[in-house]
Amino acid sequence: MSRAYLDHASSSPLRPTAFDAMLPFLREHHGDPGRLHQEGRATRVQLEVAREQVAALVGSRPREVVFTSGGTESINTAIWGAVARGSETSGGLGHIVTTAVEHSAVLEACRRAPVELTIVGVDRFGRFDATEVLSSIKPETALVSVQTANHEVGTVQPVGEVVTGCQERGVLVHVDACMSIGHLPLDFGASDADLCSITAHKVGGPKGVGALLVRRGLRLSPFIVGGSQERARRGGIENVAACVGFGAVAAELTDGARLDVEAVEHRRLTDRVLIELPKLVDSVSIYGDPQGRVPQLVCIGVEGVEAEPILLGLDQRGVAVHSGSSCSSEPLEPSPVLQAMGVDAEHSLRISVGWSSTDTDIDTLLAALPEVVGKLRSLRRP
Question: In whole angstroms, what is the distance from residue 183 CA to residue 167 CA?
Fold first, then answer.
């Protein structure tokens, strides 16, 4: 049975271009890129090509791209690095401002940092108010950390206003772009953000690689120590094959405005869900902003049935979607994002498409979901 994979926002299948680019560095080119011998020089050259490719996609200088093991490490590096920098500068207790709908990697890093924390709330769409974020800044604020788009409901955030306001106040600002990278344009150079986290696997790159974009001239203590790799900003030998794969995906999206082409197609597919599903299933709610959202993701609520049995029923019918916390391998729990929005967090389904998605995938979902929901609702009737 052909399956409909509609969980690209968790992780997208590897693109053929990435696989082809990676293969030589898994089979043949094994040298440490920090060495001067021929084998090391071969991997170093391609590592720097990959850095240039990623930089071209996100509008940064290649030297501003620090390869990491993924978005979580990039986020932790930014937050804890900024806290350490702030303590060195002020010599006292620091302060972070973030929002209630950030990814768990952001919220957990902020909560574990030895600083005061302000968490700004959101509206019913899951969107924060830039004015409220900026008004939370204090003289001792070491960092403001905000997302470009929400990972659960897809709502695009007013990041530009926050970045501009932070720059005017002389406060470091970190942007989590892991959900929007490869789906919305990103111009790090023009944004004036100080730090930006991105990852490869949500857009068809390999798992286990991401990057932290660090504004030129900004110095942060490395999060991972033990070597002078990545210009002494991240210790440990680079995952060359994964970096090369990331670069190949970036080049594919940069070539011929591919990013824009895919975004149009992804919005068409997810619009089908928003338009057609309420005609097939009663009492369906749309969470997040149905218009001001990333093109690849929609989140719905199904009244009267909890998410877990729906997920299992869809899985049995060959459909993979998601619910709950976007970065948890534990039993399903209500989404903190939806709880912060003040909507029903027990009955959400996140449906997300990607580079390999087709109308057939949506057709399969639209055929299976009414059957699953109808059966589950019938079991609950007296």
Answer: 26
- Residues 56-97 pLDDT 10s: 999 999 999 999 999 999 999 999 999 999 877 666 679 999
Same domain, 353 and 332: yes
Which residue is it, tokens 């030129």? 216
pTM of the model: 0.94
Nearest residue to 59 via CA among 231, 215, 279, 268: 215
Pairing of strands 116-120, 173-176: unpaired
Provide the token pair at 139. Answer: 């003289």
Residue 146 bridge partners (DSSP):
175
Write down which residue in 256, 287, 304 finishes a domain.
Answer: 256
Q: How many CB atoms lie within 10 A of CB 260?
A: 12
Known catalytic residues are: 327
269-288 pLDDT, tens digit per residue, is 999 999 999 999 999 999 99
- Helix, strand, coil shares of the chain as percentages rounded to 5? 45, 15, 40
Instruction: With cut-offs at 50, 70 and 90, classify the pLDDT of residue 326.
Output: very low
Residues 337 and 211 in one domain: no
Q: Which CA distances in Å does 156 have to 200, 211, 290, 365? A: 20, 21, 10, 25
Query: Domain total for the chain?
Result: 2
Domain that holds residue 316: 4-12+257-380
CA distance 109 to 102: 11
Q: Is 77 helix (H, G, I), strand (E, B) or coil?
A: helix
CB contact at 8 A, 21 and 245:
yes
Residue 195, domain CATH: 3.40.640.10
Domain end among 256, 279, 301: 256
CB-CB contact of 176 with 374 (8 Å): no
Is residue 221 within 8 Å of residue 92, measured between CB atoms?
Answer: no
Check whether 325 has a pLDDT greater than 50: no
Q: Which CATH number is 301's domain given?
A: 3.90.1150.10
Strands (E), 182-336: 195-199, 210-214, 284-287, 297-302, 319-320
| Phi and psi angles of residue 274, each rounded to the nearest 5 degrees, phi first | -65, -35
Quick one: 251 and 263 in the same domain? Answer: no
List the structure tokens of 93: 């207790």
CA distance 315 to 186: 34
